[in-house]
Design the sequence.
């Protein structure tokens, strides 16, 4: 088929093929080969119609209109006609891309779920943090703020977003700066949590007391990278504590004065009784002076209790060991035979309240008075042993002397 533009298709006779076939048949005839008589003689060449695919498309010629066994040239390759190696390569690449797409889809789903969970946790965290009345902040080791909650922002008059990048606790009261520096140094050296009470100077130069609970945040190597602090204003509490301390100090001074005055008044009464005893010694009967001195010793015993309380750090109890030693010495020294007596006191672990100290002191006075009167008569020396054993709610007082006069338990 031909047209005025180009060749669509047709048959092409090769001179070589025609010459080859003619020569072959001539050889058969000349050789008179047996069996060749039945072979047909070829008068035309074995030809196949050939058509150009591009021209067929241009003229709209369908393949079904072509002669049987026609060959179509310049046909564009399709997937089936692509080279086998190229096809395998394409399939391999497609498979790899498919696997990568599946992996990306799975990772994207996991990332989406993780992001949703993080968003939920962050929302929950912020709702908890923002709902607190305490001031909450996070800051780096150099003091740069990275987060503050609403309470912190309201207290210091800051914008939460603008506060990021500012320094934390920049206006520490001058006298507290060294203590705050030592506080954070201890956190960096291994303490995970510490609490500090300090003063801060607000923008209006007002000084307020704060209590901060500081926690460290470390990286995977254990290095401190951030701090989280929760603080509250305790100025009113501090002022109340100062008032209480002042009131306690006043009451302490008052109680000291009370015990001092009681002791002095008892001492005055004791002195008056002593003067009366001296006067009565000149009169008859002589036992009146002795009775007056016994009353004087009882008053001294009570005065000794108030003396101990006056000198004690606690007005609720007295130290028995020291009190017994002092009381026994004062009682023994009032007798002429005081040099004969050696005193042993064992009551290191015991204390007595005021309501018990006075009657116990009076008992000690009576026992030691009897010892000094009667136990060492005719002896050159003697031992007085005073012990108190305290075991919970049970207290035992033991007084013994080597003269055999007094040996008792209370």
Sequence:
């Amino acid at each position: 088929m031909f047209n005025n533009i180009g060749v669509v298709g047709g048959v092409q006779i090769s001179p070589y093929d025609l010459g080859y076939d003619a020569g072959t048949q001539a050889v058969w005839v000349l050789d008179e080969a047996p069996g060749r008589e039945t072979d047909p003689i070829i008068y035309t060449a074995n030809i196949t119609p050939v058509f150009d695919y591009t021209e067929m498309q241009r003229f709209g010629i369908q393949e079904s209109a072509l002669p049987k066994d026609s060959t179509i040239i310049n046909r564009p390759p399709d997937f089936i006609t692509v080279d086998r190696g190229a096809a395998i390569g394409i399939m391999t690449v497609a498979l790899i891309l498919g696997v990568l797409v599946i992996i990306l889809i799975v990772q994207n789903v996991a990332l989406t779920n993780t992001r949703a969970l993080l968003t939920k946790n962050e929302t929950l965290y912020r709702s908890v943090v923002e709902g607190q009345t305490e001031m909450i902040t996070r800051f780096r080791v150099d003091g740069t703020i990275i987060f503050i909650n609403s309470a912190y922002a309201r207290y210091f008059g800051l914008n939460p977003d603008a506060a990021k990048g500012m320094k934390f606790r920049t206006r520490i009261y001058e006298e507290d700066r060294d203590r705050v520096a030592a506080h954070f140094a201890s956190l960096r050296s291994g303490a995970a949590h510490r609490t500090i009470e300090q003063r801060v100077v607000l923008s209006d130069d007002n000084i307020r007391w704060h209590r901060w609970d500081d926690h460290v945040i470390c990286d995977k190597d254990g290095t401190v990278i951030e701090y989280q602090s929760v603080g509250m204003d305790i100025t009113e509490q501090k002022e109340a504590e100062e008032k209480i301390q002042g009131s306690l100090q006043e009451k302490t001074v008052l109680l000291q004065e009370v015990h001092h005055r009681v002791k002095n008044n008892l001492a005055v009464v004791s002195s008056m009784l002593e003067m009366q005893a001296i006067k009565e010694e000149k009169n008859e009967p002589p036992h009146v002076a002795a009775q007056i001195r016994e009353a004087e010793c009882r008053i001294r015993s009570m005065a000794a209790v108030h003396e101990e309380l006056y000198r004690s750090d606690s007005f609720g109890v007295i130290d028995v060991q020291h009190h017994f030693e002092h009381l026994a010495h004062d009682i023994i020294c009032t007798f002429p035979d005081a040099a004969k007596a050696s005193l042993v006191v064992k009551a290191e672990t015991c204390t007595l309240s005021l309501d018990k100290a006075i009657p116990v002191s009076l008992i000690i006075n009576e026992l030691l008075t009897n010892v000094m009167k009667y136990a060492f008569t005719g002896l050159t020396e003697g031992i007085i042993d005073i012990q108190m054993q305290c075991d919970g709610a049970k207290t035992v007082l033991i007084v013994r002397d080597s003269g055999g006069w007094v040996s008792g338990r209370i």
Observations:
- The first helix runs from residue 15 to 31.
